[in-house]
Amino acid sequence: MVPKPEFSAAVEQAHTRIDSTAYDDIYIVGDVHGSRTALESLLSTLELGAADLVILVGDLVRKGPDSPGVIDLVRDDDRLVSVRGNNEAKILRGEKEPGWLRDGDTAYLASLPVVVSFDDAVVVHGGIDPTRTLSDHTVEELLTMRSPLGSGYDGPFWYEDYSGPYRVFFGHTVHERPVDREYAVGLDTGCVYGGQLTAYDYRRGRFVTTDPTATHQDRSDDKIAAVQ
Fold it and tell me: Which InterPro entries does the protein's record reference (predicted)?
């Protein structure tokens, strides 16, 4: 049995541990980026029951047309939880000051955990450095990890050299299709860039996607990673 993951003191304060046996179905969903219509479509496809759980990998907001609507959808449904993404962090640091922010939105974004874990699964926005222990990671690294060598799309990506023991579900790095590895599952399939919104059905070990969505923001091909 894989032990409970242990993080640094700063990360542990923002780590939510879930008992998976308390839920029927569990789904992990990729970056939404303000695309409320796509999220509603995906949730409709999932046909959630009262005892189901949806964990989003962060970046609920920015770039798409309805960030407030996405916040409302997630915040108002007890079956939906999200980790914090780098776009939430930019707002909290004051680097981005979107005009759509309402009273209570900043407090909600600040309340989002950096990590959600259950069983042998770890849900973070960015990823982890395979050369270091979990306890050696900062909050910022967990939010933004793309490659131990830098933040661009030149690679190698962190998951290419990661061999467990935890199974990491992540977003942040846009891929042409989901990453499906033994110890890493990548779920950002470019919803806001005209791609699909992707969920992973944890109980059944399968992906569930929306049809390709409207392009709310253009993105160059060299910033959409191929999946080997």
Answer: Ap4A_hydrolase, Calcineurin-like_PHP, Metallo-depent_PP-like
Q: Which residue has the tokens 């707002």?
A: 91
Tell me, rounded to whole angstroms, the distance of Cα 16 from its chain centroid: 14
DSSP string, the chain: -PPPP---HHHHTTEEE--GGG-S-EEEE---TT-HHHHHHHHHHHT--TT-EEEE-S--SSSSS-HHHHHHHHHT-TTEEE---HHHHHHHTTS---TT--TTHHHHHHHS-SEEEETTEEE-SS---TTS-GGG--HHHHHH-SBTTBSSSSS--GGGG---SSEEEE-SS-BSS-EE-SSEEE----TTBTS--EEEETTTTEEEEPPP--BSS---GGGSB---
The residue type at 153: Y
| Distance between CA atoms of residues 168 and 19, nearest Å | 17
Note whether 67 and 34 are within 8 A (CB): yes
Gap between the Cα atoms of 129 and 149, Å rounded: 10
Question: Is the pTM value of this prediction over 0.85?
Answer: yes
Q: Decide: 123 and 57 in contact? Cβ < 8 Å.
A: yes
Q: Tell me phi and psi for residue 28, to 5 degrees.
A: -115, 130
Query: What topology does CATH give the domain 9-211?
Result: Purple Acid Phosphatase; chain A, domain 2 (3.60.21)
Residue 84 contacts residue 171 (beta carbons within 8 Å): no
CA 190 from centroid of its chain's CA atoms = 12
Q: Give CA–CA dist 139/210, Å, rounded.
A: 31
